[in-house]
Amino acid sequence: MRTLYIIIFFGLLSLSSGLLSSCDNTKPDEVKAVQAATPTTLPDTAQSIILASAEQAPDAVASVPSINLNADAATILARPQVPILCYHQIRDWRDSDSKQAKDYIVQTAQFREQMQMLADSGYHTILPDQLLAYLTTGAPLPEKPIMLTFDDTNLDQYTNALPELEKHNFKAVFFVMTVSLNRPRYMTREQVKDLSDKGHAIGSHTWDHHNVKKYQGSDWETQVAKPKRVLEEITGQPVTYFAYPFGLWNKEAIPELKKHGITAAFQLAAKRDEQDPLFTIRRIIASGYWSPTRLYKNLEGSFD
């Protein structure tokens, strides 16, 4: 029944190898731009269904974080930002990896040390529903909250990162690029389903990682609507969170994302939009060059 209420709620809110470009292939000017650096209205019908459901099954509804998508932007922007890390590949460096690529590749032992540091330092992972409840209603978060996110569907996120997450009972968000599913070096549909079943959040990272700022016409169906449907079919859960390829966004994208059932979107380090901060939530790339100590210092000073 809990799943049904969630589906009703969000429903109402309504390769080629050359195309498999990952974030480590970002053009230099885009990397420089990234590193330099109004919520959807809840229909009255949705509100009445939620209230009716609460009367019929209060325990089930109470476990769902309360999110007020009518919260004004000023309220959201006034709340201290939660540090959100963005990971890509979790594997050992190869001789063929460029200096720039290594920014996006955290070696396995290094990732293990980073997760241990977070656990030892008292950090607690949160998921997007908790973040939105905090931003829109002031709902409490655990002490030293942090969000861990993974982009691009790389297989090593499942084989190398997942065991370390499980060791510390950490939960993460996996933003899936659907064109890559079942292809060599990428996750399978079954692995994405397994992540969801284990309590991790699954979000969309488009079909084939094209820059959102260049979308026109049917691109919104191909890159946003269809991947969302595919991921919902795989997980059996609503998919309402989106990560911009390369972290790049523009104002024109936000109404399109809302139209296609997205309730929040994640960029990288650029300034948040003053009208739609939920669609420009900031993240920081976990660099392959960072030691656990460096990561800790960056987290403590992030978004100050």
Automatic annotation (TrEMBL):
GO terms for biological process: carbohydrate metabolic process. Residues 144-304 form the NodB homology domain. GO terms for molecular function: hydrolase activity, acting on carbon-nitrogen (but not peptide) bonds. SUPFAM superfamilies: Glycoside hydrolase/deacetylase. PROSITE patterns: NODB (PS51677), PROKAR_LIPOPROTEIN (PS51257). It is found in: Secreted. Its main location: secreted. Keywords: Signal. It comes from the Bacteria. GO terms for cellular component: extracellular region. InterPro entries: Glyco_hydro/deAcase_b/a-brl, NODB_dom, Polysacch_Deacetylase. This is Polysaccharide deacetylase family protein. It comes from Pontibacter cellulosilyticus.
